[in-house]
Amino acid sequence: MDNIVLSFFDNLIFLFQQSPTFFYVTISLISLTVGSFLNVVIYRMPKMMEYSWYQDCREFLAEEVVNIEAKKLTAMTLSKPDSTCPSCGHKIRFYENIPVLSWLWLKGKCGACTNRISARYPLVELATMLLSLIVANHFGATLTSPLVILLTWCLITLTMIDFDHMLLPDQITLPLL
Fold first, then answer.
1. Per-residue pLDDT tens digits for 107-122
2. Which of 79, 102, 90, 93 is nearest to 32 (CA)?
3. In whole angstroms, what separates CA 20 from the centre of its chain?
4. Is residue 152 very low, low, confident or very high in pLDDT (cuts 50, 70, 90)?
5. Neighbours of 36 (CB within 10 A)
6. Do residues 11 and 3 lie in contact, with contact meaning Cβ atoms separated by under 8 Å?
């Protein structure tokens, strides 16, 4: 089994080295898709942390907070609930979630309520693609490239979460150590 995996990666690296255009197009498309996912992580991870902290406090304080319902928080993960418009709650369909292109096609507005969608979403996707291409160009079609690209994606996520909330989630920072 190990030989099959190694053979696959050797063949893939050989293909990428023989066709740099294919290598860069592949990196670009994967990075745009990952950039879209990073937007989800950047938005949801702080909310997930806040929900966890709130639950821990409720558990710790037990009876003291039974009558206090000042803050209604709902549990979320990186995969659920489905993406929705923050203004109207419209469920984002797959064709409204194509990195960069959907934002341009919808003219930066929700498909249902026409409220503005932040330009930050396509900018994070484009930055992810650009930085991944810079790394890929520097390291070439080697096994080092995907590892450094993965590090780059983590750093993009950490930068944006830190910028918004001044937090660095352990779920991202500790594996990097």
1. 999 888 889 989 999 9
2. 102
3. 26
4. very high
5. 20
6. no
* Cβ partners under 8 Å of residue 110, min gap 6: 85, 87, 88, 90, 117
Q: 10 Å Cβ neighbour count for 170?
A: 9
CA-based nearest residue to 33, from 109, 168, 132? 132
Closest CA to 84 of 93, 72, 75, 73: 93
* Mean pLDDT on 102-108: 91
The CA–CA distances, whole Å, from 103 to 24, 31, 82, 136 equal 23, 17, 18, 26
CB contact at 8 A, 113 and 87: yes
At residue 74, the pLDDT reads: 66
E strands present in the chain:
none
Report pTM.
0.84
d(CA 55, CA 26): 42
Across 49-74, b (16+ Cβ under 10 Å) vs e yields bebeeeeeeeeeeeeeeeeeeeeeee
Burial string for 127-164 (b: 16+ CB within 10 Å, else e) reads: bbbebbbebbeeeebeeebbeebeebbbebbbebbeee
High-pLDDT (> 70) share of the chain, %: 92
Q: In whole angstroms, give the CA distance from residue 125 to residue 106.
A: 16
